[in-house]
C-alpha cells in the first residue's frame, strides 16, 4: 500500500470515528489527491486505490472502510446516497455473499458495524496503523 493510499485509509478511519461519510469529490479534495474525475485514467486510479483499501480491510476481517465514500447521485428508489456500483462489485467479489439482502440494507448494516468498530478505542489502537 502506497503512502498516498495509507493517507486515504487514515482519513477514512477518522471519518468512521466521527460517524461521517463523504462524497467522492470531497474525499478527493480532503485528501489532496488532485484527481480530475473527468479524466478516465485519473478516475480508474482513484477507484483502484479505494479497491486496495477495501481488499485490505476485508482481508483483515474488518468492516468496509470505503463504504464511507458515497456517490453524489442517489440510486433510483433509494432514499440514501450509496457508494458506487464498483464498490458493491468488489465487495461481492471479495466476500461473495454480502449484498444478497440488497445494497441499501448492506450499506446501512455495514455502516453501523464500521462506526462501532472504529469508535472502540482498543480496536482503533490495534488496527489504525497499516501492517502487512
User: Which parts are unreliable, with pLDDT below 50 for 5 consecutive residues or more?
Assistant: none
- General shape: globular
Major beta-sheet overview: 2 strands, parallel
- Counting helices, strands and paired strands, the structural category is mainly alpha
What is the number of independent domains? 1
Question: What does this 3D model show about the protein?
Answer:
By secondary structure, this protein is mainly alpha-helical. It has one domain (3-127). The protein is 58% helix and 3% strand. It has six helices and two strands, in the order H-E-H-H-E-H-H-H. A two-stranded parallel sheet has the order 1-2. The mean pLDDT is 91.
Name its key features.
mainly alpha, 2 strands, two-stranded parallel sheet, 3% strand, 6 helices
Summarize the structure.
By secondary structure, the chain is mainly alpha-helical.
List the helices and strands and how they pair.
Layout lengths: L2 H15 L4 E2 H7 L9 H20 L9 E2 L14 H11 L7 H17 L1 H7 L5
Parallel strand pairs: 1-2
Amino acid at each position: 500500500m502506497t503512502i498516498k493510499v495509507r493517507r486515504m485509509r487514515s482519513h477514512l478511519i477518522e471519518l468512521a470515528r466521527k460517524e461521517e461519510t463523504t462524497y467522492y469529490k470531497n474525499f478527493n479534495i480532503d485528501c489532496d489527491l488532485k484527481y480530475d474525475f473527468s479524466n478516465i485514467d485519473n478516475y480508474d486510479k482513484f477507484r483502484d486505490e479505494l479497491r486496495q483499501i477495501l481488499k485490505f480491510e476485508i482481508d483483515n476481517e474488518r468492516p468496509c472502510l470505503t463504504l464511507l465514500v458515497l456517490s453524489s447521485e442517489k440510486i433510483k428508489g433509494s432514499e440514501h446516497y450509496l457508494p458506487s456500483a464498483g464498490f458493491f462489485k468488489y465487495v461481492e467479489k471479495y466476500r461473495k455473499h454480502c449484498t444478497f439482502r440488497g445494497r441499501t440494507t448492506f450499506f446501512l448494516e455495514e455502516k453501523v458495524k464500521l462506526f462501532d468498530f472504529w469508535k472502540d478505542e482498543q480496536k482503533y489502537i490495534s488496527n489504525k496503523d497499516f501492517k502487512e
